[in-house]
Design goal:
Blueprint lengths: L8 H6 L1 H8 L29 H7 L14 E4 L8 E2 L24 H14 L3 E6 L9 H14 L4 E6 L8 H6 L4 E5 L5 H4 L5 E4 L2 E4 H21 L3 E8 L8 H10 L4 E6 L9 H5 L6 H10 L6 E2 L10 E2 L11 H5 L7 H32 L2 H6 L2 E5 L16 E7 L4 E8 L4 E2 L2 E2 L4 H7 L5 E3 L5 H9 L3 E3 L7 H17 L9 H6 L6 H5 L1
Parallel strand pairs: 1-3, 3-4, 4-5, 5-8, 8-9, 9-10, 12-17, 17-18
Antiparallel strand pairs: 1-11, 2-6, 6-7, 12-13, 13-14, 15-16
Helix pairs in contact: 4-5, 13-17
Length: 529
């Protein structure tokens, strides 16, 4: 344990300057294998000019390690690791379950041979699938034989696919050599604390040295193994992503210290994600009434960590058998019985040709974004315009475009837009409005509530009823930029909004995002107001 300064809720309320003074960000900058604090987070929007070439090669088509890539490339998980060596109060593994979207849930457990067969089938049908991860439903390294047997088969059958694994870190130090043997360049470690007193509230027990260990002793062992494993992976050049579950009242303040400590040890990304605590999932936290954070609380903690380890904000907390782009699940298309009926041909040349077209699309997206930034900067009028920042919600089906009907959205991507840039800052899950071809008006209040700190929502199309409801709530529905690249659309809308304010056609109103930018962390009804 370090003697890092502890950041309080009061510091969060004072905003990022107070937090920055408290955590003393390290001197490293930019996106490198040893972490960084560049202006653009690697997990958010950094491109080939924002990091060393050898690192960009590892992350450019990895949807979890590059926010830009997640618009274009798919990933899949194979459920070959059912056992776990720790118990988390937020986890309840479920098998043969298709109606929950959260970690630890699978419809089918697979043998390594079945997993390899499934990966080859998916990669043949989805040429933009570039990453295979083993993320459970237990812990990948608590099932080492099954995990590495799967990786061995994939190296032979699908050599172009990146290999990843997720772990709680308890068994990590003893497995680093084998991880490197299979050229696994990306490892995710779930680290929720660096103080065992905090950890004892999250982990009831671990299984260590052939016995069950509980309390602070268990959290102390887990912490030691996690830090040691992270340092060893960094020394071997493996990119590490740290997952942290934000649990209000338990580790919300503490995650700022976690961010600093993992950065010091070379973490490439830090993914702070919300606790999922609905009682029906049957987790200990869910059954005892522990609430999850609001979207505003989550963003406030993420913002408070800016300047430390690079942040990932586009995580979807995927199932252990997820298939497809982040935010979608196509696993039902690739059940074992369906794979048996598929004519599977692993055409590496076809996959590479498809991905080359994807890269051309990404270059066009970057060019459109740059043009919009230059136009916005040219049109900027006065200091007030330069400091204005707004949140906008975007309905997208992928490819980095505004290409989804409002009524078909199950989530909105959130961008913070200024005269100079449009930066991805998170996503908000919402209830589906269109069901069976008709709009469900009773869903509208919850959708509006989810994005009520946004000034606009960019969509491909929107009906009259939700349009009126959004306008009444002070959120501008915008379909004028349908099918344009997101950043270009957001910056173009912002320039138009600013011009209308300057002409006196509308009065600029500060919404909830102003409180968020100032680092407010109030929670509950106030945060959602």
């Amino acid at each position: 344990m370090s003697n890092t300064a502890f950041v309080t809720i009061g510091d969060l309320r004072k905003g990022r300057p107070a937090v920055s003074r408290a955590i003393e960000p390290a001197a490293a900058s930019g996106c490198a294998s040893s972490g960084g604090e560049g202006k653009a987070s690697c997990g958010s929007s950094a491109g080939p000019d924002g990091m060393p070439a050898e690192i960009w090669a590892k992350v450019k088509d990895h949807p979890c390690y590059s926010e830009e890539a997640h618009h274009h490339y798919a990933r899949m998980h194979v459920a070959v690791a059912p056992a776990c060596n720790i118990q988390c109060n937020y986890c309840n593994r479920k098998y043969d379950c298709s109606n929950e979207s959260r970690p630890g849930v699978v419809s089918q457990k697979l043998t390594p041979e079945q997993a390899v067969k499934k990966v080859v089938a998916v990669a043949s049908a989805i040429p933009q699938m570039t990453v295979l991860g083993i993320a459970g439903p237990g812990d990948a390294l608590a099932n080492p034989r099954k995990t590495f047997h799967t990786f061995r088969g994939l190296q032979q059958r699908a050599p172009d696919i990146k290999l990843c694994l997720s772990t709680n870190g308890l068994a990590l130090p003893e497995m680093v050599d084998e991880i490197c043997q299979y050229n696994i360049d990306h490892v995710t470690i779930t680290i929720n604390m660096v103080d065992p007193e905090v950890g004892a509230k999250i982990y009831p027990w671990i299984f260590w040295d052939h016995r069950r260990v509980t309390g602070v002793e268990a959290a102390t062992i887990l912490h030691r193994q996690q830090m040691r494993g992270l340092e060893m992976l960094t020394a071997r050049g493996v990119l590490t992503k740290i997952n942290s579950v934000l649990i209000p009242g338990i580790n919300d303040e503490h995650l700022i210290e976690v961010n600093r400590e993992v950065k010091k040890r070379g973490a490439f990304l830090h993914n702070i994600m919300p606790l999922i605590s609905e009682a029906e999932h049957g987790t200990a936290f869910g059954l005892t009434g522990q609430r999850g954070p609001t979207a505003q609380e989550l963003k406030a903690v993420q913002d408070a960590c800016m300047g430390g380890a690079n942040l990932m904000r586009h995580c979807r907390q995927c199932r252990a058998d997820a298939v497809g782009l982040l935010g979608e699940d196509r696993s039902d298309e690739f059940t074992l019985d369906r794979i048996e009926q598929m004519d599977v041909v692993y055409d590496l040349d076809k996959r590479r040709a498809y991905q080359a077209r994807v890269e051309s699309e990404r270059q066009a997206q970057r060019a459109a974004k740059q043009l919009a930034i230059e136009a916005a900067a040219h049109d900027a009028a006065g200091a007030a315009a330069d400091t204005m920042k707004l949140l906008v919600a975007v309905a997208t089906e992928g490819q980095g475009r505004v290409n989804q009907h409002f009524g078909h959205a199950t989530e909105f991507q959130i961008y913070e837009v200024s005269a100079r840039e449009a930066v991805f800052v998170g996503h908000r899950r919402v209830d589906l409005y269109c069901q069976g071809g008709y709009g469900e008006d009773e869903q509208l209040p919850s959708i509006v509530s989810a994005i009520n700190d946004c000034h606009a929502v960019l969509v491909a199309k929107i009906g009259a009823c939700p349009r009126d409801e959004l306008q009444a709530a002070g959120i501008e529905p915008v379909d004028a930029y349908a099918h344009e690249f997101i950043e270009h659309a957001a910056l173009s809308w912002f320039a138009d909004y600013r011009a209308r304010v300057a002409r006196g056609e509308l009065h600029h109103q500060r919404r909830g995002d102003a409180r968020i930018r100032q680092g407010a962390y109030t929670g509950g009804a106030e945060a959602a107001a």
